[in-house]
């Protein structure tokens, strides 16, 4: 299968990347980051999460974040909602797209959502119906698609089934998440082939964590399987909660560098994306997890 | 082209990885690292360099290193030699394999070897003849194969020509080096296809730096082009001298993790390789550059 000519990048740094930051990131900093990401050319930016601030204090400013964005413009700003209450908050704040987060592992589902996979999908069905009734788009995630921190390997059949159910409840796109970054290219290709029996490839996205350094290799592998949408996080924001200190989401800069090299169109400017990553890294007071950003930064210092 | 069933890993950590360390690494530490790498199953370990200690003080103990190894056993311990004088030292110390280091960039050749590419190959011809006459094997490197820190992109034709000349002067294997790590998968595949017109694929090796995070993706891409030998460095030892602070050689652990996942045989044990990387990282007093080592280390701490 030839590689796609064009890829859609879904930037998840402001939500998935920042959600585990222990120190609260000021709303103005988050909004400036989102503004820079949009200016770099990103058309889909997951910006926050309507969850209880008791569980995720970093996302307590969800309403203010949406209030600071043009929600009816060309850029889509999905927000994560865990349940009907979260959806109500998101709708009240003007969200035009919501994301639902299911798991392919029973243990992970219990620990993360406090219910079985089946129960979570029942609840998500209600959330999706309510969202769609208001003309709000729904995106679905399947976490632990290549492995679970508690159960180990996950059967691709289960991932396919959960993805299919998210599709049936109205999600326009299903993002398959290698939550702990353990996947390698052959397993990832097999997963895609199996899921594609239930969900058309053009409705699938890849969400890879670089915990074991495999993210770009996995993305290359599934580009060759017709997948043309990928989630990534500027500056590689977001650690792995199951391996503190290890890397989280694949860095948007590293992914874009590879896609640019492959001649694949994204509409995103690498220099502007790198600048956005520098902005948030400086605001957080620590070096970027993006190797491209590090290399370009070091090269610049060397030639100054 | 199907991926190879078996891959040869050439460990370059003790030489390419350590050569730029500013503080001298004790000979006993280097020897213990090499011993652990061999015990992990690596069959080819580049261990040192017979260069003037004035230029590379870290390799001043080359004679002592070879004296501490079984040079006639199953494991091959190549050493880098820049010229006839270096070869004489290596032969006197009992080396059974030497490596020659040519460049595909005129500017890099001038700055690194102080002569043109053509002159360097003339000199290497003498070195190779002298080595082969003593029954010593010769391995060739072509640096800057995907880009030069001074000239930018390098034409694959030049790389192919230099590789062919190294083959003609008697090298059993030519390692193509992305010295500054700028290559991406499509460029890397094109390079291999062009070089393979002059040098059989089974005589080619890939030597990727992870400066821009592309190394594993590039390796995956050329596995699909029939390349089955790769250089790597335990713990990702070795910075990029042209981007200080940035990452150097691809980490052996990350590469092995990918190959294990692909079901490709290497004969190397990941846990033992990770332990060797922990040993040298502790000796150097800094964290590993291997994402696999970091993830496994963090996971272990979490479950302790």
Report on the structure:
The structure is a homodimer of 304-residue chains. With 304 residues, the first copy, chain A, is an alpha/beta fold. The first copy, chain A, has one domain (8-303): Aldolase class I (TIM Barrel). The first copy, chain A, contains twelve helices and nine strands. The first copy, chain A, has helices at 13-17, 27-39, 62-67, 84-92, 106-113, 117-133, 156-168, 185-195, 215-223, 252-261, 270-284, 291-303; strands at 8-11, 44-45, 48-49, 79-80, 97-103, 137-143, 173-178, 204-208, 229-232. In chain A, strands 2-1-9-8-7-6-5-4-3 form a nine-stranded parallel sheet. In chain A, helix 2 (27-39) packs antiparallel against helix 11 and helix 10 runs antiparallel to helix 11. The model of chain A has no long low-confidence stretch (mean pLDDT 95). The A-B interface holds A 181, 183-187, 210-214, 216-217, 219-221, 240, 242-247, 251, 254, 257-258, 260-263, 290-292, 294-295, 297-299, 301-302 and B 181, 183-187, 210-214, 216-217, 219-221, 240, 242-247, 251, 254, 257-258, 260-263, 290-292, 294-295, 297-299, 301-302.
């Amino acid at each position: 299968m030839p590689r796609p000519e064009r890829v859609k990048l879904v930037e998840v740094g402001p939500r998935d990347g920042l959600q585990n930051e222990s120190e609260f990131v000021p709303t103005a900093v988050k909004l400036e980051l989102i503004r820079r990401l949009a200016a770099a050319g990103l058309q889909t930016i997951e910006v926050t999460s309507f969850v209880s601030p008791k569980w995720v204090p970093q996302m307590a400013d969800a309403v203010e974040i949406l209030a600071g964005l043009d929600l009816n413009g060309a850029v889509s700003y999905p927000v994560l909602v865990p349940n009907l209450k979260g959806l109500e908050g998101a709708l009240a704040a003007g969200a035009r797209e919501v994301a639902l987060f299911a798991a392919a592992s029973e243990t992970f589902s219990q620990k993360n959502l406090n219910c079985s996979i089946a129960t979570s999908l029942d609840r998500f069905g209600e959330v999706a119906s309510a969202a769609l009734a208001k003309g709000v788009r729904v995106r679905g995630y399947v976490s632990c698609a290549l492995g679970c921190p508690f159960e180990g390997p996950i059967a691709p059949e289960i991932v396919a089934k959960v993805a299919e159910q998210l599709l049936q409840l109205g999600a326009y796109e299903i993002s398959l998440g290698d939550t702990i970054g353990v996947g390698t290219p052959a397993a990832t290709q097999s997963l895609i082939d199996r899921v594609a029996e239930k969900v058309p490839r053009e409705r699938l996205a890849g969400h890879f964590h670089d915990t074991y350094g495999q993210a770009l290799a996995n993305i290359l592998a599934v580009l060759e399987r017709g997948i043309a949408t990928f989630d990534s996080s500027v500056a590689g924001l977001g650690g792995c909660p199951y391996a503190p200190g290890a890397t989280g989401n694949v860095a948007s800069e590293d992914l874009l560098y590879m896609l640019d090299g492959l001649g694949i169109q994204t509409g995103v400017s690498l220099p502007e994306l790198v600048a956005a990553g520098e902005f948030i890294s400086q605001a957080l007071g620590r070096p970027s997890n993006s190797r491209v950003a590090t290399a370009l930064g070091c090269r610049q210092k060397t030639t100054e």
